[in-house]
Amino acid sequence: MATPASAPAAAGSAPRGKPTKPREYPLMSRRQVEGLIAQGRVVTIIDQFVVKLDGWLAYHPGGDKAIQHMVGRDATDEVTVLHSLEAKAQMTRYRIGRIEGHWRNFVPPIQGGKFRTLEKGDPGIDDAEDDDTLRFFGASSPSDVSSREASPVFDTADTHVRRRPGAASVSSATSATSATDDDHDEKDMDGTAFLDSETRKQIRLDLDKYPALDDETQSEIVRKYRLLDERIKAEGLYDCDYRAYAIEVMRYTLLFAGMLTFLRWGWYFPSAACLGCFWHQLVFSAHDAGHMGITHNFHVDTCIGIFIADFMGGLSIGWWKRNHNVHHIVTNSPSTTRISSICPSSPCLTVSSAT
């Protein structure tokens, strides 16, 4: 997406017309990145570079929540898929360092992640700590993630990485014992403790059902995802079919004309029904415009979205983008603006009250 003219510019930019050699970035450890996040910095990883987005957070067209959910994580795929090449090029001005090798994601602060400051004299060398993501979801190490049946989408035919002889039977016995203990304890629980118990049950079920969280498994998922993305591009499935929009415009016109006709005749109920259907159908085009899915031009699609959502529907397209885009980044997390009605667990309530 294009960068607004009001966006802050990087300091020390070279004058136009003068050739510049590529900038050298310092190599940063995971511990150093953790220290920056502990200081409240908005830091993420894009294409093996450490990017500090504090100055861009308030200007991000997709809202600040989408960025906050990527703090401490490798956001390469999210940035590549959801941004234009021009927008991605603008992000280079926020680079502060680089990393080497595979990046182990932190749990972002907005999701309840805890970070340690880099104390004076700390060499900034990575500790041999447990993987934060696994610990957050209830497993202390990759070996604690129980074996399960292979996923038809993500798992390869060679499953020796995750599977161990006899692991399935051990996992089943452990799950049965845990379930019995939980059922026994539920009798003496208060409301919050009961919710915590149910959350732990669901986490165990998810760990058995979905691909494991160890680095090798997740790297394989990323590899397959990128191949799928390239295949979709090659087949032209990201390109908009404008003939379908011609049909949509005809539908909108028919509903709007019906609303005016019935209103003129004094048939107010049919007129209101046509107006409601007109607004309802417009939402789909506003959604596409908000995702830059019509012309793929940030300014043109934004103007289309403003005309449809703001002018015709009375809904701010900017507000919608700030609240909606995060659901494409963290697909299973509800919008915090609706947290009181659809919060699924007690940890969700705790994290949301803090943010």
TrEMBL record:
Polar residues bias locations: 140-149
Residue ranges of domain Cytochrome b5 heme-binding in the record: 25-100
Primary site of residence: membrane
Gene Ontology BP annotations: sphingolipid metabolic process
Bias (Low complexity): 1-15, 167-179
Full protein name: Delta 8-(E)-sphingolipid desaturase
Localization: Membrane
InterPro entries recorded: Cyt_B5-like_heme/steroid-bd (IPR001199), Cyt_B5-like_heme/steroid_sf (IPR036400), Fatty_acid_desaturase (IPR012171)
Membrane-topology descriptor: Multi-pass membrane protein
Recorded GO MF terms: metal ion binding; oxidoreductase activity, acting on paired donors, with oxidation of a pair of donors resulting in the reduction of molecular oxygen to two molecules of water
Top EC class for this record: oxidoreductase
Pfam families: Cyt-b5
Key word Metal-binding present: yes
Species in which this protein is naturally found: Colletotrichum liriopes
Stretches the record annotates as Disordered: 1-25, 137-193
PROSITE patterns, alphabetized: CYTOCHROME_B5_2
Enzyme nomenclature, EC number: 1.14.19.18
Domain of life, per lineage: Eukaryota
This protein's pathway: Lipid metabolism; sphingolipid metabolism; Sphingolipid metabolism
Cellular component GO terms, alphabetical: membrane
SMART domains reported in the protein's UniProt record: Cyt-b5
Keyword tags: Iron, Lipid metabolism, Membrane, Metal-binding, Oxidoreductase, Sphingolipid metabolism, Transmembrane, Transmembrane helix
Recorded family membership: Belongs to the fatty acid desaturase type 1 family.
